[in-house]
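Sample pair:
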Amino acid sequence: MTPLLESQLLTNRRHFFGKTATGLGIPALAHLLTSQAPASEDRVLEAARTIAPKAKRVVYLFQNGAPSHLELFDHKPKLAELNGKPVPASYMEGKRFSTMSAAADKRRLLNSIEPFGKHGQSGATVSALMPYTAKVADDLCFIKSMHTDQVNHAPAINFFLSGFQLPSRPTVGSWLSYGLGSMNENLPTFVVMTSVTKGTSCGQIFYDSYWSSGFLPSRHQGVKLRAGASPVLYLNNPKGIDASLRRRMLDGIASLNEERHTAVGDPEIQTRIAQYEMAYRMQTSVPELADISGESKSTLDLYGPQVHEPGTFARNCLLARRLLERGTRYIQLMHAGWDQHNSLTTELYNQCRDTDQPSAALVQDLKQRGLLDDTLVIWGGEFGRTPFLQGTMENRKRWGRDHHPYAFTIWMAGGGIKPGITHGASDDIGFNAVEDKVHVHDFQATLLHLLGLDHEKLTYKFQGRHYRLTDVHGHVVKPILA
């Protein structure tokens, strides 16, 4: 007789139930934990929503590649005095830069390439490169003391959008979707659109991690809208499939998915059901959204000539306003090409031409429609650019600046932000943030606060730990709140 068969024959009733008790208990425990999870999540969200919201929606005009604060918003007369001279050693101590800085010509300081002026009643300093932004300066809050921990593009963008440098965490839009939910069941809560200046030599790659839901349920992931007649892939019905047949198909699939969910309790199954339903509703809502033929000539002119070209930053800004009107919670417009290592005197002009007018137009358009008060608009990149030159002083056509995490500028408008102010400052050459410093986690905490969410209480338990957007850091920047 084999040992296995002998063991089976000798097993008594008490031994059998003792051996199987653990196995029977695991499904029961799993069921209890699954049934309790939604209640636990509701308690977390209820605790996080204890702040009176100032904004309902966000549009983030993210400028991939890092615009130069010294060329656009942070005027430093001292740079004109020291132009061409090496950076004083005291500024460089303990600093790290990208490896490209090693080739900088003795790290000579470089003055801004265009003049600055003071604009509006606020007297905001804005470069001649940004004439349209200058016109709306009194609606903006410039934060000139931003600083970050990251020195290269992808980690720095991930850090700004998810609070972590590696592509594994939920991004801002996903946290807002999780924390606040949808305002329009016919459109995604979190929408992404991308654009690149034509002919640029320094475009950045748009990684999916920039709109990822990370460990949050995937229903909170950003939906990317493409340029052209079909903004969402595979949304249209195939030939021979009409709306009624599609409806019956989805009902059948939903029924099977519900049975599976009842059997295994996987929350991603409910996400799939919701995504099928969203896609069905978007078959009507998305084509209507993308059709701008009903916009007035004055509105189209406001955004500039590129508004007529699908896929441009100007068109995306107009579509963003249309999404905001229809109740989309968070819109992330990402425009690449700002990485001016050797193109300050050439491609920077193109970047400003393509983004300046549409950005200002969006603020104006929202304001005249009564939407700016409860819509938060954000403009900025992942870090700034060095005060010193990358290249040689003699070759002006190849002037550039390297990555700079120690001081840079972003601006915000609407949605509970105090207008017409400048917060914080960098030093006399724009090297370090020195006054009212704002870290990336502070910025994130403030963003959530404006939407009525406590950044310390908006958490999600994953692999035994309660995670949040701001990790274990961040303070609300109260002086900029209206």
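The CA atoms of residues 199 and 284 lie 35 Å apart.
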